[in-house]
Structure formats: structure tokens, C-alpha cells
Amino acid sequence: MNDQLVLCDVYDGVASVTLNDPAKLNPISALLQARLREVLAQLRDDKSVRAMIVTGAGKGFCVGADLGSMGAGGTRSLGEATADSMDRLSNPIIHEMRDLPFPVICAVNGPAAGGGVGVALAADITLAARSAYFYLPFLPRLGIVPDLGCTWFLPRLVGRGRALGLALLDERLSAERAEQWGLIWQCVDDGALLDRARGLAARLARLPSHAILEARRAFDSAERHTLSEQLQYERDRQRELIDRPAFSEGVRAFMEKRAGGPKQTAPK
């Protein structure tokens, strides 16, 4: 059933989302993508959710497109049908993950290939099991460009030279090397991956509720601003944020040497 292709449960404010087609290593089929969009929409509107973990069932995280299920439609070519599917399903998934009002952790439990790399990097924090790897077969194997945001994420995370190497050389990037390059936050022993993800999710869930949106917007704006423009952006955000209750509570906690920080406040 379609609703089994992506599993979701929420416990203590943390949503766990699992891509669940393990026999095929969780390819991004149209049905899986449609179900994932449903889950993301449900979680976005769930006020009890304060953090989310995305992982894969079985031995793989996500191997990208389900090539065996791709087909032209009616009078459209395969390329046209694929572009339409990307407009309706693939690209919205990346936008929706990046727009969620809570932190997103990706726990890469096995191979992340093709568009699966884009899904993994769309998270705010990405962890990977030591046995996992990242692989971009698009150009060397298929003659097509990396998609699902790979061409946007990779050069920003590892630089243009390494991004081009990954796109052209048909080589797997191990989780350990991915950590060394700054592609991911941390490489974790396989058996500790989900525990580590849950621990980070619990910490992130305690952040002020506007923190993740502010962080994303600040770093995204820095990509298109000059230094002078970004300094002004920071000034403008401080003007507003310092007058919110979260700041005054955080200052009190610091002065009183209390553990923790500002309490959750409603996003604006």
C-alpha cells in the first residue's frame, strides 16, 4: 500500500520519517514521493512536532530515481514526463523539507545515490553511518545532470572543485570522507546512528521555535549578499529578535548560571 512506502511516528515532539521500500534500497518512485509529500504536509501542520528525523529502512538510505518505473506518458517524451514529475513531486519535496518550521536531521543509514543525495543534504543536519556512502551516477552513467538540489548543495558544502569531481568521476564518497570534507555533520558507527540522531533531535527540539527558520534565512541570505549587506541583515534581525521574550529569558538563564536557554516561542 502507498501509505507504507513512507512510515511516520511522533514521540515526545520528534517525528521519525522512514523511507520504506527496503527491497529496492528505497528508490524515489512516484508513489513514494507522493506519500512523502503527504507526510511532510501533515507534520508541518502538527504543532506538537519540534524536530524531525529522516532515514531509510533496511540496508540503504535512498538510491535515487526508480529507473525501472520511468516511462513516457501519452504524446510526451520520457524527458518531458520526467520534467513534469519533477515539477509535481521531486522539487517540491526539497522545498518542503527546507521550509519546515522545525529542525530536520537526516540519518543516512546506507547508500545515498542520485537524487537520494539531494534528499539527504536538504536536511539541516546530516549524519551518516560509517558504512554509508554518497554517489552521483548522473553524468558518468546516464548523461544527465545531478538533480533534487545536488548542484546547489554540493558546491556550497564542499566547494566547486570537489562538487565537480563527485559529479564526473563516478566514485563513491565514503561517510568518513564526507565528514572530513564538511558535506555532513558527523560520521557515526552503524549501530549508534539512530541513537545519535534521536539525541540531536531531542536537543534541537528544545530550541526556540523560530530558531531554525532564522538560521536557514540568515545563511541563505549570506549566499547572495555582500559582506556589507549581510552585516546590515544581521543588524536588522537583532533589532527585532532582541526585543522578543526568548532573548530576555536566555540572558536571565545565563546570568543565573542556569542550564538551558530561551523557552519556545511562537514563530513569526
List the helices and strands and how they pair.
Elements: E1 6-11, E2 14-19, H1 30-44, E3 51-56, H2 78-99, E4 104-108, E5 112-113, H3 115-121, E6 125-129, E7 133-135, H4 138-142, H5 150-158, H6 160-168, E8 173-174, H7 175-181, E9 186-188, H8 193-205, H9 211-224, H10 227-241, H11 245-255
Parallel strand pairs: 2-3, 3-4, 4-6, 5-7, 6-9
Antiparallel strand pairs: 1-2, 7-8
Helix pairs in contact: 1-2, 5-6
Question: What do you see in this structure?
Answer:
With 268 residues, the protein is of the alpha/beta class. The strands form two sheets. A six-stranded mixed sheet has the order 1-2-3-4-6-9, sandwiched between helices. Strands 5-7-8 form a three-stranded mixed sheet. The chain is built from eleven helices and nine strands. Helix 1 packs parallel to helix 2 and helix 5 packs across helix 6. The model has no long low-confidence stretch (mean pLDDT 93). A hairpin with a 2-residue loop joins strand 1 and strand 2. The protein is globular, with a radius of gyration of 20 Å. The protein starts with 5 loop residues before the first strand and ends in a 13-residue tail after the last helix. The chain folds into two domains: 204 residues, Alpha-Beta Complex (2-enoyl-CoA Hydratase, Chain A, domain 1), CATH 3.90.226.10; 45 residues, no CATH class. The relative contact order is 0.11.
